[in-house]
Fold:
Amino acid sequence: MSVAEEGLLERNKDTMTLNMGPQHPSTHGVFRVVLEMDGEMVRSSDPDIGYLHTGIEKTGETKLYAHCIPMTDRLDYLNPPGNNLAFCLSVEKLLQTEIPARADYLRVIMCELTRVASHLLWLGTHALDIGAMTVFLYCWRERELILDLNEMISGVRMMTSYVRVGGVMKDATPEWIAGVKHVVDILPEKVDEYESLLTRNPIWMDRTIGAGVMTKEEAIQWSMSGPCLRASGVNFDFRKQRPYSRYQDFKFDVPVLTNGDVYDRYRVRVAEIRQSREIIKQAIENLPEGPYKVEDNKISLPDRDKLKTSMEALIHHFKLVSEGVKVPEGETYVPTEGPRGEVGFYIVSDGSGIPYRMKLRAPSFMAIPGMCAMMRGSYIADVVAIIGSVDIVMGEVDR
Amino acid sequence: MNSEEIIEKLKSAKGDKLKDTEVTLGDAIVHLEPGSLHEVAEFLKSDPDLHFDYLSCISGVDYLDLEREPRFECVYELHSMDKNHSIRLRVGVPEEEPSVPTVKDLWPAAIYPEREIYDMFGLTIEGHDEQKRLLMPEEWEGHPLRRDYDLTREKVAFSHNLDFKEELVKEKVPTRYKPNQV
Structure:
């Protein structure tokens, strides 16, 4: 049976309605968009989201703060430590705690490793969408190293839940540090390898240059963030503009390009991989000694071996596990820079151990209307490239 | 500008429109009535010193359990890209008149978060031409993020029962549930 007979294509005067998704491989999840086509040109697009809606924000209103952290992993499932960090920073702002330097450095290393892994996954699948198969296999090879490091430090390959309120879950081991140094050493030549396959590849350039152009003004008014914003010429990165977790200690550049097309978004992300590597290198070489979580046992769990000897530690452990950390009344929002853009949690606390309201500011969610604006007037073949270049993750769109 | 200067500047220009202002934990926060939201938002965007050109997010909160008046609140997080400062607008929305004006004309990106507010809290967005559900199915009843929403007993929305599907076709609700010809 042809596509037209199944009712997927509807002819109507000059335009044709074309359904794409929700099971389309290039949408990277369950994203459905209904395109109104004028020949090969997209006249308008109507996105349909909500297929992955799991009500995490509602569930969060019934769980302790510590129980919310594994749920934040599952929002943007390519950036678990970044989501944990955004959540913990908001809670810590309400608690007004000072985080030890070692914990901050470990957080930064984990977030940057995840940024590299996320960009590698994006690069592989985006290239695969456009037809470059080999890049996919190369990217997976290096991403595997990072997932192994995640497993080494947290026991889990993807949903690490590594960042906790008041610090991190576990201290770094010498083997892990050696593994991170290995990734830092090999990364530049591997990125050169990807670039040799794509950056000056005439087919890649033909497919991506001039596709899905977004000007600086459009990028701002559609609230694009992260690499999409910086590829359009806006120099804005929360790690530089409003440093959190001691990002001010590291020297790194924010890659900014001006054309705002698919090719520039690709180049910004590749440059970001190189900059993340610089940050990881500085952090792992200057990793400070000291505690990896705050000493206050009303916020972070006491050490396991203390439970056997100290009555106080046992009480703290029991109270913290059963009642959770008591967060003072108030509301706050801390923006952070994730691989896809601005991630932040708006948290309202009523003074108990359960958040009254937690709301995620998801970069992919905010980017969807802008992405559809990009599609307007482009060719049908470019739609796949545009969706790929914005890098949406449906887990955080639908929440 | 730091948070105190932003509040000072806003107070001197639109002081009579603001319900309350505060600087808490370093964040500039402004409390507003729904009626004055659009005017204040327009000023915040157009003033060259403030220039809040970027809408970061809109969050809805239902204060039913805390017994606060008004019951609902819409929280607008704004950034300025070139000035690098932020402000938070907290708009209290009473239960009797659950509506807020749209800010879609100032920040087009508001289109999705505003639909989400309607979907999750049931607040009407005045001037929003596409007011329909976003994340929940179109025929869903109730607004899930309200505090009095029943979590345990919800109506079955998806069914392989043919009668149910035929009912949907009769009402011509969403085309995507159209049953196959059997």
